[in-house]
Amino acid sequence: KGDVVNANLFPDNKIKDAVIRGNASVRQTTAERVTTIGAPELNAAFNQLRQLQEANAIGQSVVEIVPNDTKDYSRVTVNAIRGIGILLKGEGLIDTIRTDGRTTIQLNAPNSTPEAANKRVTADAVTTFFNANGKDISKTEAVGDAELYVEPLNAGIKNYRTTINAPRFDCEFFPTGNNARVCIAGKKAKAVRVPTVTAAGHGPQTLVADQLTANFSPRSNDVESLNASGNSKFTELDRNAIARQMTFTQADETVRLRGGEPTVWDSRARAKAGEIDLDVRNNRSYLRGGVSTTYYSQKQMKGSAPFAATDKPVFVTSQTAEFDNVAETATFVTNARGWQDNNYVRGDKIFVDQSAGKFMAEGNVQSLLYNAKVKQKGKESTVPTSAAATSMTYDRDKRLLQYRTSVDIRQGTDRITAASADVYLNENNEVSKTIAETNVLITQPARRATGDWAQYTAEDETAILRGNPAVIDDAENGSSQSAQLTFFMRDNRVVSEGKPKQNTSGRTRSVYKVKPQ
Predict the structure, then answer these.
(1) 96-130 pLDDT, tens per residue?
(2) Which residues pair with 262 in a beta bridge?
(3) What pLDDT was estimated at residue 129?
(4) pTM of the full predicted structure?
(5) d(CA 449, CA 105)
(6) DSSP of 270-321, one letter per residue?
(7) Cβ-proximal residues to 42 (8 Å cutoff; 6+ apart), any chain
(8) DSSP string covering 453-485, please?
């Protein structure tokens, strides 16, 4: 129909071809669907079987394919600025739909699932091919400033509006239903996912790459996965990631980084590994293979590491790592090592809790974290102190290092071994006090001390030793034993106390060596 219709007829007065001008439209109805073409001008041609063979719409044109089966089939709407051409094969069977000028193809999916989504493809020109049965779309080629927009029909915490831009799209469809199965975006593609429900710690997600492939769910028609290849980059709020290839899967909302030295970073830290998985829903990161992490400064770690300089970076390496950005924790496993300048701690596992200000190492722990001030021959000097143990914990608020099991602390030529030791540090990461307990052994050149408990105070270089009994053996000055011994290191003097509070029945014994005249 139209304002003006000029038609040529077959001998049986059936339409052979027609030119329709002014509000022109052609409608063809079959058992499966209704196809309607509308434009300012239409040219229609019919075959010998009196079936519509070709229709060309000129000007601002629209084609609508409305399925009678609205449960499984999407409704297709094509809009083009300059025109649309349709080739058919048999009654109501479409071969191709070609457009001219800026084109939009809208695929409205049945709202049969909570994740159901509509799709829209926009480009300068679009060609749509149908299957051999002429009923179902086979593939679509969208060329020129192409855009694919996926819009969920329902808002939800897992539902995102997805927009993909590229110079070209090539989309393949499922065998039935006029539902896209996969769309391959051309060079320099960009995907933006915007959440339909606002949630703390989440925002628009951007994925760019040399090529993007979007795979769609046959159940919901929403994006099932995004595959990025070549110079891939992902961003969300403060979080960034790069790799040669990335794969996003909607089922677990995870971005997997592979190839080209995968790297993640934010305003506080940067990490590299052989493989990285980003759980964007729970804001966690999983790193495997040669993990290398840089915290930009100790201050940005909220002082949770046992290092002195607040404005210098802290480095941590391991074989695997896990970051929880919400809880502000990090776990480094297998050959873990953290350091700043010359200070370090290593172990089988390192755990960092920035919120609580805790730094923990477990398994074969070795550390060089603090200094001790000593006076020798009237001169004060600073001596680095190393420690080994089965585990170590640093408490930021208490400025306390706790070593547990098989503790071995070395300070210059001095050495302390015990079952446990607590080391209290000052603001300069220098030892202020050390308390060791259980099977305490202190060795110095020509001196050996044993006990159950010992306390060393750096300010006056005094060591208090308790035991049953506590014993100090001096190669030059003899030996002393008592329930409690106080050793004044500066004066090389020992004071015995037989009855401390811990042991009211203690006795004192001293053996002095007389030096020959």
Answers:
(1) 999 999 999 988 877 667 777 888 899 999 999 98
(2) none
(3) 93
(4) 0.84
(5) 87
(6) EEE-SEEEEETTTTEEEEEEEEEEEES-TGGGTT-SS-S-SSS-EEEEEEEE
(7) 2, 18, 19, 20, 24, 25, 26, 55, 56, 57, 58
(8) EEEEETTTTEEEEEEEEEEEEETTTEEEEEEEE
